[in-house]
């Protein structure tokens, strides 16, 4: 709408002044009327009149007034997945940093704990098994301390690197991506602005030659594939998408003519379905932006035509003013159309923030060409299509990411290497004295002969608790050496004790654990496995004249040197008797040697010391055995005809060394009892070490427990409730012997064991029923009775085993692979080996067994 002021005076005679012009104050009063400029087919309408001097506001004001302040609507945070991932990684790395710092602190605490535990190991009053467990625990901690410290330090460095590098990587890659995409958009915008400016001029004049040169401008944007400029047909002025210029290599597949003809060929592509709406939208936007400028220009041109015939000065001046106004209005209209046409769009949607590969890598940017043509109130005249490819941008982004990753990796690797070097250096400084200490303690543990540790000291140069601990260990080592030197006398005593027992001898002259003698009518086999230290168990069999054999089995009460001395004296007197024996009536009175032994021991007056033994004279031709016992009145015979064991009880007599001979005689004295064994029968003499072998009760965690089956002291199988262990027992011993002699399967059931049912099976079907097999079966089953497989046992849990026992178990023990497959050599004794990864209850008494088999 244009408002015109028509004054009552003639236009030519009406003076017009601006603010501050001279003479403005001399204006004559006049009347002004304001009319609404009508459309060509409408009459004018008076809006208002201004009487006398006044101010009128003339113009088009379609927009209603709005206040400058407005309420803020709901604001939504944009969701950025990458940002949240970075935040999540940073939080996780922060947690990792805290955990690593706490881990390093725990390592330092462990180092202090190892010192305290090592001190407790050396100075504490622990059982040997507990000391071994504690040593393994300390070793495990000590060996793992360096790794833990290094691991936590590396984790800390990694966490710091990730926390710094991750957001930096994301920020830099995102910045590069946005910069490249925005750069492409900006360069494409400038290119299309230049193309639109030139196209407006050449399209309106239909200059095909100049239009054909425009596509060459795309060389300034390397990502551009082609540009296509379309507009109206040669005979029209309304846009209908006829191509005027293009360098699209695939244009023939998009036009309706066989060959491209400028201004004639009509294009059809992905934009075609959208052009109708886009054209309408652009025209509407142009009309709103231009407003009444178009009508103003038209009215002024009409007025110029009306005044054109006049030649007076005022009319000519007015025509010039109209021409100036028209040019100004046309410039203003062109500026507004240019502003509207700057709305560049893309198909598919192009984002300057990130690359969306789901939309492909090729985009068509397009914008309108708007200009005024004649008196038409339509402005959309042409369209610029610019196809761009972001493949090169994607390649640049990928290369940038790779370069950045390489830099981050180099920095991270350098930081990690420095961290590893520092961690291992620090850990070495902390761990080296502890490892040195543990190695020395292990050497002490693994050296059976502690006398060999003489001169072996540990030298720790630090001035802290470890150095004090090292000096303590050195003092302990010196004490062990002195104790070992003192105990060598006991070891020699034990070897001397074994000299009196008929055992086999190895290549170095040392007595082994078993002895065997085979004659025409009889076989002898004996086994001796001593407990700790020296003791008083003893057996012997002597060939008197080829027919008669003297046999003794002795058990001296107590342990130690006194028991060994008594045992040696008994053995000496027995050997003297055998040397003087003759097959006369006096020679058959074997009770005389028993009185001699009793008298000698009684005169020694050892408090609480006595010897219980069985003495026998065996006629191998007839099978007659004469027994004389002193406090040991139980003998065991396997009856081949009945195929079972028999237990025979001899008259009760006092053990030797308890009463003087005259008192013994007053109570009936030592008497001789005669028995006969048939061919194939076997006489077995053994001390209580086999029947009284014990194992402790344990729960599923292998902790020692008491039997809780029923009220206290109530019977439960072979023991009573409230008891903490069970003995092998006479019944099991008898069952083992019967199974061997009858070539049967023997099942050993252990009660209250942490291993589940506790059932072990021994297959004796391949046995031949020899005396050696019988005694080895007893010894082997007794070994497995005390042995158990604990989860706490490892390669350092070493159980010494006689190699003869291992060979027997390998043949007859069905669970051998489960219990006995992991072994180690015993460098201190070739006759023995070690079972590992198992444990055993302590052997409290000697195993002393002798068997006589009549052929």
UniProtKB/TrEMBL annotation:
Alphabetical list of PANTHER family matching this protein:
STAGE II SPORULATION PROTEIN E, STAGE II SPORULATION PROTEIN E-RELATED
* Name recorded for this polypeptide: Hamp domain protein
Keyword Cytoplasm found: no
Q: Name one GO cellular component term.
A: membrane
Its Gene Ontology molecular function terms?
phosphatase activity
Q: Which domain of life is it from?
A: Bacteria
Organism annotation: Treponema primitia (strain ATCC BAA-887 / DSM 12427 / ZAS-2)
Keywords of the record, alphabetical order, are: Hydrolase, Membrane, Transmembrane, Transmembrane helix
Annotated membrane-spanning segments are 83-105, 149-172, 407-431
Q: Name one GO biological process term.
A: signal transduction
Q: Residues in domain HAMP?
A: 428-485
Which InterPro entries does the record associate with it? Bact_Sigma-Reg, HAMP_dom, PPM-type-like_dom_sf, PPM-type_phosphatase-like_dom
- Identify the Pfam families for this entry: HAMP (PF00672), SpoIIE (PF07228)
């Amino acid at each position: 709408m244009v408002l015109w002021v028509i004054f009552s005076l003639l236009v030519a005679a009406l003076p017009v002044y601006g603010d501050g012009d001279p003479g403005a104050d001399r204006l004559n009063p006049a009347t002004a009327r304001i009319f609404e400029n009508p459309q060509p087919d409408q009459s004018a309408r008076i809006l208002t009149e201004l009487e006398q001097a006044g101010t009128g506001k003339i113009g088009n004001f379609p927009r209603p007034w709005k206040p400058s302040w407005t309420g803020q609507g709901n604001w939504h945070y944009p969701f950025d997945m990458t940002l949240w991932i970075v935040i999540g990684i940073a939080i996780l790395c922060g947690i990792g940093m805290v955990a690593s710092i706490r881990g390093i602190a725990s390592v330092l605490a462990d180092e202090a704990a190892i010192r305290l535990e090592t001190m407790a190991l050396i100075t504490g009053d622990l059982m040997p098994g507990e000391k071994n467990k504690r040593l393994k625990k300390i070793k495990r901690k000590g060996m793992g301390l360096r790794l833990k410290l290094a691991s936590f330090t590396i984790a800390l460095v990694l966490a710091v690197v990730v926390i710094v590098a991750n957001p930096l990587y994301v920020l830099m890659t995102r910045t590069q991506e946005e910069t490249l995409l925005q750069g492409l958009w900006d360069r494409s915008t400038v290119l299309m602005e230049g193309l639109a400016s030139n196209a407006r001029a050449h399209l309106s004049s239909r200059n095909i030659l100049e239009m054909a040169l425009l596509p060459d401008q795309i060389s300034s944007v390397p990502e551009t594939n082609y540009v296509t400029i379309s507009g109206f047909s040669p005979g029209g002025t309304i846009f209908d998408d006829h191509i005027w210029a293009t360098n699209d290599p695939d244009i023939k597949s998009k036009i309706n003519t066989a060959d491209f003809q400028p201004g004639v060929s009509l294009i059809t592509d992905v934009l075609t379905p959208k052009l109708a709406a886009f054209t309408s939208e652009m025209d509407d936007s142009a009309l709103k932006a231009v407003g009444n400028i178009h009508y103003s220009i038209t009215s002024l041109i009409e007025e110029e035509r009306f005044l054109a015939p006049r030649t007076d000065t005022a009319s000519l001046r007015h025509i010039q003013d109209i021409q100036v106004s028209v040019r100004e209005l046309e410039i203003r209209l062109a500026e507004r159309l240019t502003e509207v046409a700057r709305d560049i769009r893309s198909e598919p949607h192009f984002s300057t923030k990130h690359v969306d590969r789901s939309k492909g890598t090729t985009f068509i940017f397009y914008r309108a060409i708007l200009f005024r043509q004649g008196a038409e109130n339509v402005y959309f005249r042409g369209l610029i299509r610019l196809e761009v490819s972001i493949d090169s941008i994607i390649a640049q982004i990928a290369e940038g990411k790779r370069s950045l990753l390489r830099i981050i990796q180099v920095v991270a690797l350098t930081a990690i290497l420095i961290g590893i070097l520092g961690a291992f250096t620090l850990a070495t400084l902390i761990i080296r004295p502890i490892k040195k200490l543990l190695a020395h303690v292990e050497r002490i543990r693994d050296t059976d002969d502690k006398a060999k540790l003489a001169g072996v000291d540990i030298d720790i140069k630090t001035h802290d608790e470890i150095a004090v601990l090292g000096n303590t260990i050195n003092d302990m080592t010196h004490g062990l050496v002195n104790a070992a030197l003192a105990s060598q006398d006991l070891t020699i005593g034990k070897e001397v004790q074994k000299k009196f027992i008929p055992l086999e001898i190895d290549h170095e002259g040392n007595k082994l654990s078993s002895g065997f003698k085979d004659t025409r009518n009889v076989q002898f086999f004996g086994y001796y496995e001593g407990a700790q230290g020296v003791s008083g168990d003893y057996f012997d069999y002597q060939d008197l004249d080829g027919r008669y054999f003297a046999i003794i089995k002795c058990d001296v009460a107590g342990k130690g040197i006194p028991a060994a001395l008594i045992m040696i004296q008994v053995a000496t007197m027995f050997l003297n008797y055998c040397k003087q024996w003759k097959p006369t009536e006096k020679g058959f009175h074997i009770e005389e040697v028993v009185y001699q032994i009793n008298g000698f021991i009684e005169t020694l007056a050892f408090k609480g010391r006595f010897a219980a033994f069985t003495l026998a004279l065996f006629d191998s031709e007839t099978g007659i055995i004469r027994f004389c016992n002193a406090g040991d009145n139980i003998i065991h015979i396997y009856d081949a005809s009945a195929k079972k064991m028999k237990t025979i009880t001899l008259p009760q007599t006092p053990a030797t060394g308890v009463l003087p001979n005259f008192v013994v005689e007053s109570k009936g004295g030592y008497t001789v009892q005669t028995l006969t064994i048939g061919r194939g029968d076997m006489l077995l003499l053994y001390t209580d070490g086999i029947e009284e072998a014990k194992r402790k009760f344990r729960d599923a965690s292998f902790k020692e427990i008491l039997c809780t089956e029923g009220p206290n002291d109530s019977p439960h199988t072979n023991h009573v409730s409230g008891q903490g262990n069970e003995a092998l027992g006479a019944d099991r011993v008898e069952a083992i012997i019967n199974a061997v002699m009858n070539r049967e399967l023997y099942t050993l059931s252990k009660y209250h064991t942490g291993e589940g049912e506790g059932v072990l099976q021994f297959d004796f079907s391949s046995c031949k029923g020899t005396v050696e097999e019988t005694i080895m079966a007893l010894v082997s089953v007794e070994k497995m009775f005390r042995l158990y497989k604990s989860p706490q046992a490892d390669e350092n849990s070493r159980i010494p085993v006689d190699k003869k026992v291992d060979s027997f178990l390998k043949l007859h023990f069905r669970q051998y692979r489960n219990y006995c497959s992991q072994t180690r050599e015993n460098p201190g004794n070739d006759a023995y080996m070690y079972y590992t990864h198992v444990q055993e209850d302590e052997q409290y008494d000697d195993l002393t067994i002798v068997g006589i088999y009549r052929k």
